[in-house]
Amino acid sequence: MLKIREAIVVEGRYDKNTLSQVVDTVILETAGFGIFRDEETLALLRRIGAKRGLILLTDSDGAGFLIRNYLKGALPQDQVKHAYIPDRYGKERRKRRPGKEGKLGVEGMPPAVLEAALRQAGATVLGEDSAPPQAPPLTKADLYACGLSGGEGSREKRQKLLRKLDLPSHLSPNAMLPILSALYDRNALLEEMRNL
User: What secondary structure letter does DSSP report for 133?
Assistant: First the structure.
């Protein structure tokens, strides 16, 4: 079980139950769209974020991204890390039917996938040696130079790269930037683009 310094924010109690089998940290729920009108929970998130930092881990469907984007604007950006689960199609065991988009949520992900998502987001795992210093993050100009934004066919290239990297298809160029920076430096990203 991973001991993580940051608190993790998930959509609901089933996500929390699944995640609590993988990590030892504070796990907070948004109650789905309930966070939009819950100032108390938002204040709590800000307070915990200031003390330990937060990791947002929402489902990879449209609803998950709506919640993530709301929190992204409501919380100080320097206190929030973003963990993304890949698009996996299917249905959770407790449900009769798959969700609207047919994708598994956090509760349907295997422990190894959740651990990998948290590590890629830069979670501070207590008891492990600190990571080596990172290269400067990628910029929007890098995405443009790779043909992933602002040009003809950039959406298709982005979707192809997201599928190859096993990342959610809902990621915009701005949302891709911190994720790709965590995974690649400029040269490695150029190499990945050549391999597409």
Answer: P
The whole-angstrom separation of Cα 138 and Cα 110 is: 30
Name the phi and psi angles at 40, rounded to 5.
Answer: -65, -45
Residue 175's CB is within 10 A of a number of other CB atoms, namely: 18
- Residue 161, both tokens: 């790269």
Hey, which CATH number is domain 2-120, 3.40.1360.10, 3.40.50.300, 3.20.20.105, 3.90.1570.10?
Answer: 3.40.1360.10
- Looking at residue 192, its amino acid is E
CA dist list (Å): 15 to 7, 32, 90, 157? 14, 11, 16, 31
Note the pLDDT tens digit of each residue in 50-63: 888 999 999 988 89
| Residue 166: predicted pLDDT | 72
CA dihedral 78, 63, 89, 113 (to 10 degrees): 20
Residues of the chain with CATH 3.40.1360.10: 2-120
% of the chain at pLDDT higher than 70: 93
Token pair in block for residue 137 = 């993050």
User: What CA–CA distance (Å, rounded) separates 181 from 190?
Assistant: 12
**DSSP for residue 6:** S
The neighbour count for residue 42, using CB atoms within 10 Å, is 17
